[in-house]
Write a structure and sequence with these properties.
By secondary structure, the chain is α+β, with helices and mostly antiparallel strands. The protein has two domains: about 5-200, no CATH class; about 205-325, no CATH class. Helix content is about 40%, strand content about 10%. The chain has helices at about 5, 45-50, 60-80, 100-120, 140-150, 180-195, 205-215, 230-240, 245-250, 260-275, 280-290, 300-305, 310-315; strands spanning about 20-25, 85-90, 90-95, 135-140, 165, 170-175, 335-340, 350-354. It has an eight-stranded mixed sheet with strand order 1-2-3-4-6-5-8-7, with helices on both faces. A hairpin with a 3-residue loop joins strand 2 and strand 3. The longest helix has 22 residues, at about 60-80. It is globular, with a radius of gyration of 20 Å.
């Protein structure tokens, strides 16, 4: 495995840092502004953050945003069944109905995963300054889907998912409770999206980074024995599906939304070509910082030192694989479903579903 992502597979530090975890019952006062027409409390973040001064230090801004998030979680907690609480660590706020021990285990994993991902990404990862990361773990899948329904058009259908990073307002993770073996990979995947959310990277790179990180932390997920298809079957599916037209869907991000095998093949191709590109760590990180969703990274291919289509050529052989943004009449996706939200939100926002 490539050097950049390889270190994620290494065992955690022999002497892990002692995490400070507590049950949070109060936060610094911040005026909570909520949308009036939602089933669960959804803040008007633009109104709340208007109080942030231009001359505020990063520390003061971070403390304010954390307090604002805490006030929101207290309001959300009051609308959920008895048993939900807020646990707080150095970099995370967790709202869940978990008992103390599993809540502590989950937060320690969040802290460890964040350290390891940031160590690999370096300054390509978003810096702390807009509050602690928020993780919502709902007690059951119905409550989870009731919550994420706020981010879909009224009456619209939504994809089944184990969890998502809601890239809107105060970006946060949402998932429903399960065993640690299920929840931790979801968080690793979504945390990667979160730490890259400030970059205008295309879908293939966004998802390629998230899947490689997830598989780096949990290698068993990449074991072919756990796949629906054998390696030869996957190879045959790639060969049958990709052509000069469908590869443009891949570069634009639209193929990640397909209802057929194109969805699975898009994630697999993204994982493979991201791993290939990352073999040269310095070149790849330069590419990661400059790649733009508008052209799938084409304008930044000089950072790689070779034409972008060579990434796909390794996997699919000779063909017309070069990104052609002028052919993307349906626009682009950033590796996140783009939906118009209800509850008074007029802008198109994005989130990632796993």
């Amino acid at each position: 495995m490539l050097k950049l992502l390889k270190s994620l597979i290494q065992p955690a530090d022999k002497a892990p840092q002692k995490e400070s975890i507590r049950v949070a019952t109060d936060f610094e006062p911040v005026a909570l502004v909520l949308h009036p027409d939602t089933e669960m409390p959804l803040p008007v973040w633009e109104a709340m953050t208007a109080a942030i001064g231009e001359d505020w230090s990063r520390e003061r801004r971070d403390a304010f945003c954390t307090a604002a998030a805490g006030q929101w979680l207290l309001a959300l907690c009051s609308t959920l069944p008895e048993g939900y609480r807020i646990h707080e660590s150095d970099d995370f706020l967790l709202l869940s109905a978990l008992e103390d021990r599993p809540a502590h285990v989950l937060l320690r994993f969040c802290q460890s995963a964040r350290r390891r991902i940031v160590a690999n990404l370096g300054d390509a990862a978003v810096a702390r300054g807009d509050g602690k990361h928020v993780v919502l773990v709902f007690d059951d899948d119905q409550t989870y889907y009731d919550y994420i329904a706020h981010y879909y058009p009224e009456g619209g259908e939504y994809a089944m998912s184990a969890g998502m990073f809601v890239h809107a307002g105060y970006g946060h993770f949402a998932l429903y409770e399960g065993d640690m073996e299920r929840m931790q990979p979801v968080i690793a995947h979504e945390l990667t999206h979160c730490l890259l959310s400030h970059l205008r990277i295309p879908a293939w790179l966004n998802e390629g980074m998230a899947v490689n990180t997830e598989h780096g932390l949990f290698p068993y997920l990449a074991d072919p024995r756990n796949s629906l298809y054998s390696p030869n079957e996957v190879k045959a599916k790639h060969a049958a599906f990709w052509n000069p037209d469908t590869i443009q869907e891949f570069w634009s991000g639209k193929s990640f939304l397909r209802p057929d095998d194109g969805n699975m093949l898009s994630y697999d191709l993204a994982k493979r070509i991201t791993a290939t590109a990352a073999r040269d760590e310095a070149s790849f990180l330069a590419f990661l910082r400059q790649a733009d969703i508008a052209d799938a990274g084409l304008s930044a291919e000089g950072c790689l030192g070779y034409p972008m289509e060579h990434l796909v050529l390794v996997m699919l052989g000779e063909g017309d694989w070069r990104p052609a943004p002028e052919r993307w009449s349906e626009g682009v996706e950033r590796g996140q479903f783009r939906v118009r939200r209800s509850a008074g939100y007029s802008a198109r926002d994005s989130f990632n579903a796993t």
